[in-house]
Amino acid sequence: MQVVADVIAQFTGAERRGAFFIALATALLGLAMAVTGNGDSFGAHGALVLAASIITIFCLIRSFDKPEPSSERLQSYYDEPTKAGIVLAMAWAVLGLFVGDWVAWLLVYPDLTFDAAWASFGRIRPVHTTGVIFGFGGNALIATSFYVLQRTTRARLPDQLSPWFVLWGYNLFCVIAVTGYLMGVTQSKEYAEPEWYADIWLVVVWVTYFAIYLRTLVRRKEPHIYVANWYYMAFILVVAILHIVNNLAVPISFGSAKSYSAFSGVQDAMTQWWYGHNAVAFFLTAGFLGMMYYYLPKRAGRPIYSYRMSIISFWGITFFYMWAGSHHLHYTALPQWVQSLGMTFSVMLLVPSWASAGNALLTLNGAWDKVRDDATLRFMMVAAVFYGLSTFEGSFMAIRSVNSLSHYTDWTIGHVHAGALGWVAMITFGAIYASVPWLWKTRGMYSARLVEAHFWLAVAGTVIYVFAMWNSGIIQGLMWRTYTEGGTLAYTFTDSLVAMRPYYMARAIGGLFFLIGALIGCYNIWMTIRMARVSATNTAADLQDAPVAALQPGE
Amino acid sequence: MPDHDTAVWLSKSYGLVYLVALSLGVLLYVYWPANRKRFDQAAESIIRYEDRPWR
Ligand code: HEM
Ligand code: HEM
Asked: What digits encode the pLDDT tens for the residues B2-54?
């Protein structure tokens, strides 16, 4: 509570009023939803929005008549939203990983659903994917992008209200999404499950986010914009486009959660996977590349190996990825030439992808002693390695004949998590461990050994997960295509399930390692923040003592 | 609605020109000698420790 009050105390009068009106507007919106959607899950979400808004209004009123902040605040960067974003990202990480491991155990013990609808595979699986991608990944991207944007432009964020609106609104979106799945609300589009009202809300939030970027950039110091910002901006801009197009839909009424997509049949499939693959490309890749291009050189204390190469990869990635989505639809009703197009661009994608991975590793070349001693930098190095690995694998799997073996199998799941655990989560943990001491102004993390422990748990968890899925995926794929001499299938589907079980068990254990690592990370971050508080109050106490001491000689 | 042949024609003509032109544009920009200093400065700029806004 004190933290919230401190934030509001930093707001100017106009910002406080602005925040108040926004919260009032969302409260009214929530109320309207609750009334019109009474009895529907739409109404439940209305109540949720109303509750979130009322709590916000309550916090605002409590601090409304605090004195206005001095203009001294403009002499420093505005890092409070970044701090909050990091804490939120870690909270979502714990939730998302926990549910992920739950899903993993559910595949080992299918009876774990307790006969409850909300606990069925189809509902908690999207809770996992949304929790990790949007909750954990998204908050980490928003938090680090604000940090990087200010440092690289040497300009403070344009105002104090809009970053909070983005963070608050974005997390509200995530909560609506996740609670919706548990109630059975879904559009049935992977990674775009939330229904129309949540989608519209996200557009508002996202446009504000992009506006913050532009408004800060126009006040930058150097004419040239550092490459990390290009990646972050591509992430924001393209996600907006993807999100809007793929979610075009008509609700059955303004009092219902249900809607129907504007697309149908194979066009629907193509739109969805154009979205889906570019979500991988611009959410899970471009944004995190932005993170990498700032934090890795910064932490290593060396400029990026080749700045030119980073620009070439940027344009390569943004251009090629757009055309690769159809590799998700090999051997479907999609015309053959569209499949071939997707396959060709996927293979070409290897070039800019490896250029980025190579650039990162070559930057570290000559600083291997730092990598050895510093687990934070090692997180980033491993991320670059897994980035190279998963993009190689992806380009390979996009080849139609390879895909005929890998599609529908756990190989895809292995590929996903080589990217998600090895690349996305590793680079994020690295960036978070680097920023926490910078943000809270401590000499380092509370415990370097706990960072080390987290690192090894994360690596072990990832390796176990990925190897288990590679094995099971290939076995599965081969079992499905083995014929007897008589020309019938040699194995039933159930046979293949039985063969999978040991690997599912291994994956769940690997996931547990990964989760424990993240929990250790939370503890370490928490203790670092406390450490910062203690030393802040100590210096404050010192300052209070000082004048008294100075007075003594004159007494 | 444009049919398959139109789409193929479009991608083989304008699409190809677009791809090649974009690639050339990017390569020219990246290797333009006058840009070299700017890129080097940008790469170095994040390493310096200047923890406050410039105005
Ligand atoms: C504790 C670590 C994790 C565990 C145990 C775990 C487990 C799982 C499981 C069991 C599935 C469902 C697989 C299936 O349907 O057969 C899944 C899917 C998925 N997970 Fe995770 N996960 C973890 C971490 C992550 C992270 C950190 C991310 C992203 C940043 C992620 C992204 C995904 C995605 C995108 C899918 C959907 C894959 C697809 O549809 O092909 N996971 N995960
Ligand atoms: C050059 C880069 C990449 C290419 C060409 C590529 C290609 C592919 C292919 C062919 C599939 C399987 C589609 C299917 O059979 O259904 C796939 C699935 C997937 N990939 Fe990648 N991949 C790349 C990089 C990455 C990275 C870096 C990540 C993650 C962080 C990632 C995340 C995913 C996800 C989440 C899926 C599962 C989609 C689903 O079915 O739900 N990919 N990718």
From this structure: 787 888 889 889 988 998 999 999 999 999 999 999 999 999 989 886 678 88
Q: Given this model, what pLDDT does residue B7 score?
A: 81
Q: Is A214 on the interface with B (CB under 8 A)?
A: no
> Which of B11, B40, B46 lies at the smallest CB-CB distance from A298?
B46
- Look at residue A154 and tell me if it is in a domain: yes
The pLDDT value recorded for residue A35 is: 96
Same domain (yes/no): A181, A243: yes
The domain that holds A320 is classified in CATH as 1.20.210.10
A97 and A174 housed in the same domain: yes
Which range marks the domain in which residue A415 is found? 78-532
pLDDT of the residue at A551: 40
The pLDDT, as a whole number, for residue A553 is 37
Tally of structural domains, chain A? 2
Tell me whether A152 touches chain B (CB under 8 Å). yes
What is the sign of the dihedral through the CA atoms of A327, A329, A332 and A334?
negative
A215 at the B interface (CB within 8 A)?
A: no
Interface pTM (ipTM) of the complex? 0.90
Measured from CB, residues less than 6 Å from any atom of ligand 1 are: A 97, 100-101, 103-104, 107, 125, 128-129, 132-133, 137, 190, 412-413, 416-417, 420-421, 424-425, 511, 514-515
Sign of CA pseudo-dihedral A214, A217, A219, A224:
negative
Cross-chain Cβ contact A303/B54 below 8 Å: no
Backbone angles phi, psi at A249, to 5 degrees: -160, 160
Please tell me the predicted confidence (pLDDT) of residue B1: 63
Is residue A216 domain-shared with residue A86, that is, in the same domain? yes
Dmax (CA) for chain B in angstroms is 58
| Residues A248 and A396 reside in one and the same domain | yes
Asked whether residue A550 is assigned to any structural domain, the reply reads: no
Look at the block and give the residue holding tokens 């290593």: A300
Coil, helix or strand for A514?
helix
Q: Give pLDDT tens digits for A448-464.
A: 999 999 999 999 999 99
- Enumerate residue ranges in chain A where pLDDT < 50: 546-555
Smallest Cβ–Cβ distance between B46 and the set A152, A311, A335 belongs to: A152
Question: How far is the centre of ligand 2, averaged over its atoms, from the C-alpha of A128 (Å)?
Answer: 17
| Spatial separation of the C-alpha atoms in residues A398 and A406, rounded to whole Å | 9
Indicate if A20 and A166 belong to the same structural domain: no
What are the residue ranges spanned by the domains of chain B? 22-55
Contact A288, A427 (CB under 8 A): yes
Closest CA to A516 of A101, A92, A87, A124: A101
